[in-house]
Design goal:
single chain, 233 residues, mainly alpha, Arc Repressor Mutant, subunit A, Four Helix Bundle (Hemerythrin (Met), subunit A), 2 domains, two-stranded antiparallel sheet, 10 helices, globular
Length: 233
């Protein structure tokens, strides 16, 4: 578990600790800082990110409260590994799953995730979701658009602050990946996907759980239409 180089922060929120939290959380949730990896010592990390140690400490406290990192005296800070139960669930994602069944599970859990995200999202999560939206554009390649789509939905799951929901979302993502490529096959479909994400984001940022749930249901319904009738996209 050697120390990893942490990339510098790009855009910053007015509150520096929020920017630091958002930056590190996105690196962790995207896998750029994988489970079990050890972060550099606090002084070194603060210097590499050009932030004060007090701002870094605030960020670390939030990441620890979200169970994304573990801080051990004498051992340093380590990105949390999935529990044995979570790993058991993740192994199920390797199984062959009927696509229609997987899509149905997605319709059941993602609106609930969006509602919880609206109730529980921190300022750092809002910054991350906004960054994904700012990076999204219909002119992107289908593969890059899909990557940002997956990241947006995964960030919502993390915002719900329930590791089992995050695990279920990860599994459903794996099961539906090929189908979801169809929903990003054209500029029109990518534009509609971004619009759906924007409506979900607005509701989450406003803390409006019912609207976030409805926006996710509408978004997934649109995705279902695009997948079932790709010629229309």
């Amino acid at each position: 578990m050697s120390n990893l180089l942490v990339p510098p922060i790009g855009r910053r929120a007015p509150n520096i600790s929020v920017s630091v939290t958002a930056h590190l959380e996105r690196l962790i949730t995207s896998g750029a800082l994988p489970p079990g990896s050890k972060l550099p010592p606090e002084r070194e990390l603060a210097a590499s990110m050009s932030v004060s140690r007090s701002s870094l400490r605030e960020a670390m406290q939030e990441l620890e409260s979200k169970r994304l990192i573990e801080r051990h005296p004498g051992r340093g800070t380590i990105v949390t590994k999935p529990s044995a139960r979570v790993n058991t669930l993740l192994h199920l994602s390797d199984a062959q799953v009927d696509q229609e069944n997987a899509a149905e599970v997605r319709l059941l859990i993602e609106p609930a995730i969006a509602a919880l995200a609206a109730s529980r999202a921190t300022e750092a999560t809002i910054v991350q979701l906004q960054a994904v939206l700012h990076g999204s554009d219909p002119s992107l390649s289908a593969e890059r658009a899909l990557e940002l789509d997956v990241e947006f939905h995964l960030l919502l799951a993390h915002a719900a602050q329930n590791p089992l929901l995050t695990t279920l979302l990860t599994m459903v993502t794996d099961w539906t990946l090929e189908l979801r490529r169809t929903s990003h096959a054209s500029k029109k479909s990518r534009r509609e996907s971004i619009q759906g994400h924007q409506e979900i984001f607005d509701a989450v940022a406003d803390g409006d759980a019912p609207r976030a749930k409805a926006a996710m249901e509408s978004h997934l319904d649109q995705v279902r239409v695009l997948i079932s009738n790709p010629e229309a996209s």
